[in-house]
Amino acid sequence: MDKAKPLLNVENLGISFGGLRAVQGVDLQLFSKEMVGLIGPNGAGKTTFFNMLTGVYEPTEGTIMLGNRKLNGLSPYKITQGGISRTFQNIRLFGELSVIDNVKVAYHSQAKHSLLSSIIRLPQHFNGEREMEEKALAFLEIFQLQRFKDEKAKNLPYGQQRRLEIARALAASPKLLLLDEPAAGMNPQETKELMNLIALIRETFELTVLLIEHDMPLVMGVCERIYVLDHGQLIAQGTPTEIKNNPKVIEAYLGEEVS
Ligand SMILES: Nc1ncnc2c1ncn2[C@@H]1O[C@H](COP(=O)(O)OP(=O)(O)OP(=O)(O)O)[C@@H](O)[C@H]1O
After folding, report:
1. What pTM did the predictor assign?
2. Same domain, yes or no, for 75 and 178?
3. 248 C-alpha vs ligand 1 centroid, how far in Å?
4. Which PANTHER family does the entry link to (predicted)?
5. Model confidence over 92-128: pLDDT tens digits?
6. Domain check: are 153 and 181 in the same one?
7. Residue-range definition of the domain harbouring residue 213
8. Are 189 and 182 in contact (CB under 8 A)?
9. Does the Cβ of 46 fall within 6 Å of ligand 1?
10. Could you report the predicted ipTM of this complex, rounded to two decimals?
11. Are strands 176-180 and 20-30 parallel, antiparallel or unpaired?
């Protein structure tokens, strides 16, 4: 990817819910392999922004381009296929399915063997299944979840469920990974390990990562650039040092979280 051309180019993005303008006039660019933070007080519009990028909500204004492809109006499924995967603030796993099946489900959108070959059980089906199993296991290994592979997802400890969600998001082979508060509810040790893991997968899979996170030291520590939303509008963008010293950001947070 040409460094001068963004992987993701968002221009003037906005959405209204009835009379509420939850997000407005947001311009944001992500370049290949960047790790970028999206921060802001509660209710600032961060998750709504992710929901627009992933087709959950259709923007009421503005454009979202992934490379040369316009994403406005595409279904979440098409957007995942197009290269954007996400995790959720509240974990959304298939609790009754095994850990490995949770990863394989995500894999199905990329599977090469056809539905027909699965139904009538052609050799391609079994080869495809075997390949999928091997790849899913490889993802679980990266996330140190292989020993839980046959466990129901709902029985995993909380921190492991968060890791499984990221493993599943990666199985769809994204170019861009959106993480919505991945460290929420984790203790400091788990958080540190998770951040090291995210740095590792970014390198390994040549990913671009956009991260929503309330833990300021964490965001400041891992992101190269940070965007700040407040009341649905961007109030600042820059390096962690620039953001830390930005008067508008300090005011939005009342000087608490960024210091
Ligand atoms: N489907 C919806 N219908 C109506 N209002 C909505 C909807 N989704 C989001 N909002 C409103 O949009 C605003 C932004 O919410 P959003 O969840 O995006 O904030 P956030 O920055 O992610 O907050 P938090 O950090 O607490 O998760 C809020 O006022 C919220 O109530």
Report:
1. 0.88
2. yes
3. 21
4. AMINO ACID ABC TRANSPORTER ATP-BINDING PROTEIN, CONSERVED COMPONENT OF ABC TRANSPORTER FOR NATURAL AMINO ACIDS-RELATED
5. 888 999 999 999 887 765 555 455 555 666 655 556 6
6. no
7. 1-83+174-259
8. no
9. yes
10. 0.95
11. unpaired
